[in-house]
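Data deposition worksheet. Section B asks for the primary sequence of the deposited chain exactly as it was used as input, without tags or linkers unless they were present during the calculation. Section C holds the resulting structure in token form. Section D is free text for depositor observations; keep each observation to a single sentence. Incomplete worksheets are returned to the depositor.
Section A, Depositor: J.P.
Section B:
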Amino acid sequence: MPIVQLDEHLIDQIAAGEVVERPASVVKELVENAIDAGASRIEIATASGGKTLLRVTDDGCGIPEIELALAVRRHCTSKLAGGLDEIATLGFRGEALPSIGSIARLSLRSRARGAGEAYEIVVDHSHCDGPRPTALSRGTVVEVRDLFQRVPARLKFLKSDRAESSAITDVVRRLALAEPEIRFEISGPDRTTTVFDAARNMGERIAQVLGEELADNAVAIDAEREGIRLSGFAGLPTFSRGNSLQQFLFVNGRPVRDKMLVSALRGGYADVMAKDRHPVAVLFLTLDPADVDVNVHPAKADVRFRDPGLVRGLIVGALRQAFADSGLRSSSEGTAGILARMRAKADAVTPAPRRFDGFAPGGFAAPRQTPYDPGASPFRPFAGTGDAGTPVFEAPPAAPRQEAAAFAGLAEHGTTDDAAAAPAPHNPDCPTTDDFPLGAARAQLHGNYIVAETPAGLVIVDQHAAHERLVYEALKAAIHGRALASQMLLIPEIVDLPADDCDRLCDNAEDLAALGLRLERFGPAAIAVRETPAILGQADTTRLVRDLADELAEFGTRDTVLSRIDQVAATIACHGSVRSGRILKLDEMNALLRQMEKTPSASQCNHGRPTFIELGLADIEKLFGRR
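Section C:
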């Protein structure tokens, strides 16, 4: 088949495929233009999930009549006066409006600020008509109809109206988080309207978009390193989700879905969250525009950093430091779940039906009751009567004796007896509820759960999960506080790698040696591993080195080795911590609580499960109808 020149209309449709993937892509481009125009109020109206109608109205600066024709031509923009190194706007490529006009019917009405009248231009599948006078008080109205109607290959891949509407809402939510001072309004054919009013601060906007629950289960992030600043809110590790849809990342105010940033976010939660869970976070990265490239893809969702290792290290370090400084905080989801289950069980109880036997002479008939038999009652309070008819209370059955070893490191006394399983009597030497955040231990239930009393209610602690975190943090402090011991290989392991990977590994050889991994160049395209970290045991050296080379190529970090070492420490902590079923003395329980209060990230175990749950006194009183 001979080479031919494609016609302009087909070229526009091919180019539009990179910018416009679905109706949500159109909304993103149009709303970004409205934000760049300085709008304070943006309204989005849709029909059929955006397939038949999309209308975006703003009160921005508008477009002059003489520039309307240029606005719908490819590669025409007003936003690149400073070049690609000084991009301060969301849009800059000059492709959005012409791309939309090539696959739909586009109507653009605008009145420039200070102009006497408004003008309209219409683009119908690349055919331009206008501009001509129209009616509009101020700002700009962009209307898109019949999206992809003449491109059936793209139209058939669109999802249901509900799915497309949900995608549009998600796009607007992300832009609303980035611009808290702008009012956003989304309306659909079912007359429902979602409004995000202009907020006074970022916390108020986050509450509008994501709900008050995040504010109650998040820590504030504010860190800066070498001119790069990270701010926002990160959800507690126990406040997690089953997918990553609740992760909102912004670079210089631009919503992005960059894989390096997502990886850094996961790294910050690495040893405090389960592998199959995803954190909730709203993070803003601010840096010099010259240090980030946003011109990676027409959709502008990916970015490239001049120093990705610095950015990744800032995110991981800031998250871990914030969790360590936040102290002991449990997610409100655990408390809410307990209360919901309690209420559900209470509502499921069916009261006994009342019987009406008619009226008895002189009043109501006495209810039929079964005579109380003390011997048959499951709640028998006494075993009979003694001399002079005095009730003799039945002694409770003796608890089986259990043997328990010392709770190493948490109490001086290593033995226990039957009394440890029951609530301890008041002891003036024991800590009071006002002395410590986790209160004072009062009892142990089912050999695993410590019940502690606090001034605001009570705390239930999972002793195995809590001790697992304590042991893990102690192991990490001992391991990373000094150069790690290494074991020498009798025969060096030779790993074949591309020359570039070998160069990166050799450049980081000194840092890797501090972690117990000693390697050297072995020819132009191979690495000889002479020593490995002793704590890893019989490690898969080839896989370790290849993974490390891939990470250095992508992020410039050595986290692969660190994560492997931390995984071993987590395994040791899990198997070496106090097991469920061990009976603890009161001193041991209180010692565990005091250690938790001093240990970073003690609110969750190594697997991401909560170590304790708080029940407020007000919630308990509600369950009993006292409030």
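Section D:
The chain has three domains: 8-196, 211-325, 420-627.
Residues 349-425 have pLDDT under 50 and may be disordered.
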